[in-house]
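Researcher: Sequence of Alpha/beta hydrolase follows. Predict its structure.
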Amino acid sequence: MSQTRPAVDRFYAQGRVLQGLRLSLDLLQRHAPAQAARLALRLFDTPLPPRLLQRRSPMAPWQGLTLPFETRRLQLWHRPDGAARPRVLLLHGWSGQAGQMRGLAQACWDAGLSPFVLDWPAHGRSSGSRTDIAQWQRALQVLTVEHGPWVGIAAHSIGALAAAHGVARGLPARRLALLACSAPPRHLLEGFVASFGLGSAVRDRIRQALEARARPGLAGFEPDWLGRHLRLPVLLVHDRQDRAVPAAYSEALAAALPDATLQLTEGLGHRRLLDDPGVQQQVARWLSAAV
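Model: Prediction complete. Tokens:
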């Protein structure tokens, strides 16, 4: 896995605005590295494109439910007629939205479960413009107090990493399904730094800020740490041709976990994995087996 890297650099290489930011950061880091680090961290915390510019997928028959959270609001989707069913939580990834999980939500419903689908902070119809994985941990705690516990959690990309970390720290769930699980934050940071040509002085400042936010630091998102703290059955599904996050990250996590099932698919990529009926049914069966 040492020679693979998530395609953060390709993501941030897009658009004239990002090219302008790259030039600004290059100038700043030469003369004011602390200011460059603050600007870079703001960009690292900002989902792109901004949620207000994204086309939002329809969620009917799922109904919206707003939940106060810190100075913001979280948007949750569910079906009130599923109150007597076992509850599962579905989580999208960075720069995604709840609508991407609609097919999986339907498969879970057909399997007799009651899915709750979240728009993460600064995503979809939840409020905010900046967020990070540490705030996602707090959101999971608030959400679980209000609507949990969960029979299982299924999550995509960075949402999968957040779910794994949350459960490892005590979030109640019986099973996990991690789809195209993200690289740990230190790998994402390296890709981000490479994308903008940032030097070690700026990189180290950003890393220190991220370490201060997370508990127990960025090491808590690494396979070794998760392997020591995740004791429930975990299904990992990843496509061999995923160009955003190499399948090697799921393979490393599966090797570290005591009770993991790894399923590698072909030709689905990073996001189309969520739309595949076979994957949806597999995940629904996996979660329903915990009932």
